[in-house]
Every structure is written in C-alpha cells, then in structure tokens.
Amino acid sequence: MGLVLRALRLRRGLRQRDVAARAGCSQSVVSRLEAGHVTEATVELLRRVFLALEARLDLAPRWRGAELERLLDADHASVVERVAAALERAAWAVAVEVTYSDFGERGSIDVLATRADVRAALVVEVKTAITSAERVGRKLDEKARLARSIVRERDGWTPAVVGRALAMPERSTLRRIVEATPVLRRMFPVGGRELAGWLRGPTGDVAAMWFLSGIAPRNGRRAVGPSRAPRGLVAGASHARNQVPRPAAAPESPSSMPPGDS
After folding, report:
1. Which H helix or E strand runs over 110?
2. Higher pLDDT residue, 205 or 165?
3. 3-state DSSP helix/strand/coil percent for the chain, to nearest 5?
C-alpha cells in the first residue's frame, strides 16, 4: 500500500506536504504510510489520504476461501425468505431474484411483490451489510424506476404506484450504521409501521426501511420462529393473484393487527 501511495503522489506531481494538507494530517504521517507503516493508521485516515490523491480505498474481507461468500449468501437468502413469506401473508404476489436488462442497466431484484387488484408493486432490496449508502440508494432507485416495465412484461399490466423498501435483519451493527448515516434516513424516511399501512392500501410511491427481527446469522443453525410481516400487517391473508384489477378489500382495523417487525 505504501508503494501505491507513493506512485500515485508522484504521478500527480505532489509533495508529501501537499497530500498531508489535503488529507488533514501531518507530512510525517504521509511519509510513514509510504514507508509501509499502514498498521498504525485508521481506515478513515487511509481513505482520506487516498481521496487526496483522487483514488479510492476498498476493503475486501477474506475468510476460508469461498466460505465467506457462501456464508453471506446464506444470510441474504434467510432475509429474502422472511420478506417473501411476510408479503405473501399480506396478500401480495411475490417473485424473488427477478433479473432485468434494459439498455445497459442490468441487475436482479431481490423481492418483487405485486397486487394487480390495486395496480401496485413493491421492490425490496435485501442487505445484510451496508458498505455504501449512496450505492444502495442509487441501485434501488434504478430497480424501482424499471419496475413498471418489468411487471408489464412479466404479468401484462402496469403498476400505477411503485414502492421501494430496504430490508435488513434486526442487528445492532446495522442499526448503528443507519443512525450514523443521515443520507440513509433521508432516502428511506418511512419505517415498518408506515410500510404496513401502505401495503394494506398502497397510495403513492413509498420508500421504507424494514428491519426484520428474529433472524440470526446462519452459522450452521437456522433462526427459530415463524417469519412475521412488518408491524401491523394481517397474518393469514390469501395470496394475491395477477388478474384483472378489482376494488381492494377494506383493511382490518388497527386493533385486530398482530405485532410485527419495525
């Protein structure tokens, strides 16, 4: 890493003191980093120094070869399973891992839920870790924007409203990230309770943050207990079918709704 920093600095024609001024540290710190003493620096400092050189530092954890990727996939699949089950009980038709390719925009929607009777769709992005709030929001915006054409091609009708939700397992680390990242709260201002109301009667587009409780990391054991919908959703609802739109049934009163996730 020290060699990389030096090479970038020389390429930019900068002195160590120039880099230090841009990164908000001393010249001796830059000198020690270039000499290879990176273990003494914080990740935040390293990122500032790389940014001063118009470069970016990406951290890539490694664990037991391909085991880490399989572990993360298992955690992701567990959350997708819970989200899909909760939405199905709330009378939404659900499809998972819906791929798309539209004029260079390619990707996969973790959970795509639809209600043909009220011409509504919900795009759910599942995350078990957040490394870039801007990247999460940008990609989910793309998926929500394409949702109308995706549903039209798949099911033959066009949603009038499209909601988006960022679904995460209820973990203190993720809660701390959200609390420390104002941009996330601005991108997803609605919580689980409000999302529950929107799912019963979707009116207008919505952007929600959905924490699901009771999902333990998959380290060889599955989380115990049934999956639950966001707080306020009615359990036991029939599965919605993609058919000719019809008037939506009136939602149950708040007093009849079981507790759920936030």
Report:
1. strand 105-115
2. 165
3. 45, 20, 40
CATH assignment, 2-52: 1.10.260
Evaluate if residue 252 carries a pLDDT over 90.
Answer: no
- Residue 203 half-sphere exposure, CB side, CA atoms within 13 Å? 4
Q: What are phi and psi of 29, to 5 degrees?
A: -65, -45
Number of H helices, E strands in the chain: 9, 5
Q: What is the pLDDT of residues 142-185, one digit of tens each?
A: 999 999 999 999 999 999 999 999 999 999 989 999 888 888 88
Q: In what order do the strands lie in the sheet with 207-212?
A: 93-102, 105-115, 120-126, 161-169, 207-212
Hey, how many other C-beta atoms are within 10 angstroms of the C-beta on 122?
28
Stretch 18-30: mean pLDDT, rounded? 94
Q: Give the residue from 221, 222, 208 showing the smallest Cα distance to 261.
A: 208
CB of 126 closer than 8 Å to CB of 83 = yes
123 backbone dihedrals φ, ψ, rounded to 5°:
-105, 120
The pTM for the full model equals 0.61
The label of the residue with tokens 């020389």 reads 10
In the 8-state DSSP scheme, what is residue 67? H
Report residue 133: phi and psi, to 5°. -65, -40
Task: Output 52 or 242, whichever has higher pLDDT.
Answer: 52
pLDDT averaged over every residue in the chain: 81
Alpha-carbon 194 to chain mean position = 18
- CA 53, CA 65: separation in Å to the nearest integer? 32
Position 213, amino acid: S
Distance CA 139, CA 79 (A): 19
